[in-house]
């Protein structure tokens, strides 16, 4: 779980750009699945989850991270 995170992409693994920002109200609780869709296509070799604010004292709980190409 995370209250705030970004999905970032890179062509070289050094220079990173934000593809999507996720922000959640701190009053939300329970397990959830987040589905993020990009409005415009991007070219990337690397994709990462960049946590910004944790949900609780245990840190981030990331069970799966999947990226799909829609051609």
Report on the structure:
By secondary structure, this protein is an all-beta fold. It contains no helices and three strands. It has strands at 2-10, 17-23, 46-54. Strands 2-1-3 form a three-stranded antiparallel β-sheet, with no helix packed on it. Strand 1 (2-10) and strand 2 form a beta hairpin. The radius of gyration is 13 Å and the shape is globular.
What are its keywords?
single chain; 71 residues; mainly beta; 3-stranded antiparallel sheet; 35% strand
How would you briefly describe this protein structure?
The protein is mainly β. The chain is built from no helices and three strands.
Assembly category: single chain
N/C terminus separation: 30 Å
Shape: globular
For the report, how would you describe the main beta sheet?
A: 3 strands, antiparallel
Tell me the structural class.
Answer: mainly beta
Helicity, in percent? under 10%
Main-sheet strand order equals 2-1-3
Q: Strand-residue fraction?
A: 35-45%
* Number of contiguous helices: 0
**Which stretches of 5+ consecutive residues score pLDDT under 50?**
none
Query: SSE string, helix = H, strand = E?
Result: EEE
Number of strands: 3
